[in-house]
Design goal:
This protein has 11 helices and 4 strands; from the N terminus they run H-H-H-H-E-H-H-H-E-E-E-H-H-H-H. With 259 residues, the chain is α+β, with helices and mostly antiparallel strands. The protein folds into 2 domains: 60 residues, 434 Repressor (Amino-terminal Domain) (Orthogonal Bundle); 172 residues, no CATH class.
Length: 259
């Protein structure tokens, strides 16, 4: 193989699978101390049987562990439940979305996916106005959105879904230059929930790309975090159910709730 064993890629694959060092060591038949030494590069090349077991239990080809690290732009990953989700679960999804980005980057050398079609949002634009501008740019008008996955992907944004180790994460997103990624959980199968989750992350992409460098520091500023989450909520609501057609519908047959 052209490269030496890459311990950093082993660590990424372990985190991708939601495993601790102790759990993976138990699966592959070595001590957790040895596994950590593989990851740190203190042991350069695992025995062939250990390598075979790593590949089997992590679901990555053996060649993966001998590849170079793919540099990706260090940008924040937005999580709906940042304040309540343990870091290990967030790290798991970050590694997943980075591997998707790496695959996309490789494929894009052979296939022209085109640039994402997103509006320029000026500072001070309200979430509702941003949602209206995106609908206009995408030619949706005020029509209902039946298949949001297809709609978003057809305009250059990558959408993927994962089984997640926790139900505390609904969805997450990340922007790297012209690459925008949205991931959502398949632990929950409500179509309405999936539509809102994707629209919420779309709001982060339109409103907050490039504004923050580190989500951990943002986590410390709870008021700011709640502010941008509320903006993404408002964007999603306006994008999925525009005000004008909604008001026109309810005005035809006014409803009241008996108390």
């Amino acid at each position: 193989m052209p490269y030496s064993f890459n311990g950093e890629k082993l660590k990424k694959a372990r985190i991708y699978n939601g495993l601790t060092a102790l759990q993976l060591a138990s699966l592959v038949g070595c001590s957790d101390r040895s596994l950590k030494m593989y990851e740190s590069g203190k042991i350069k090349n695992p025995d062939s049987d250990i390598l075979e077991n790593l590949s089997h239990h992590l679901g990555f080809p053996k060649e993966y562990f001998f590849g170079k690290n793919e540099p990706l732009k260090n940008t924040p990953t937005y999580f709906r439940s940042l304040l309540t989700t343990p870091k290990r679960y967030r790290d798991e999804q970050i590694e997943r979305i980075e591997i998707i980005a790496t695959i996309y980057k490789f494929i894009s050398e052979y296939i022209d996916f085109g640039k994402p079609k997103l509006p320029e949002i000026n500072e001070g634009t309200t979430p509702e106005d941003a949602a209206v501008r995106l609908r206009e740019l995408w030619g949706i008008g005020t029509k209902p959105i039946e298949h949001i996955n297809f709609l978003v992907e057809n305009h250059g944004i990558v959408v993927t879904t994962f089984s997640m180790s926790t139900d505390k994460i609904d969805a997450f997103s990340r922007s790297m230059d012209n690459l925008h990624l949205i991931g959502y959980t398949n632990n929950k199968n409500s179509a309405a929930r999936i539509h809102f989750d994707i629209a919420h992350e779309l709001g982060h992409i339109c409103l907050h790309s490039g504004l923050y460098e580190d989500m951990e520091s943002l986590k410390e500023d709870k008021d700011e975090f709640k502010r941008i989450e509320n903006q993404a909520h408002d964007f999603a609501s306006a994008f999925l159910l525009p005000k004008i057609p909604f008001m026109a519908d309810v005005s035809k047959d006014p409803l009241s709730i008996e108390l």
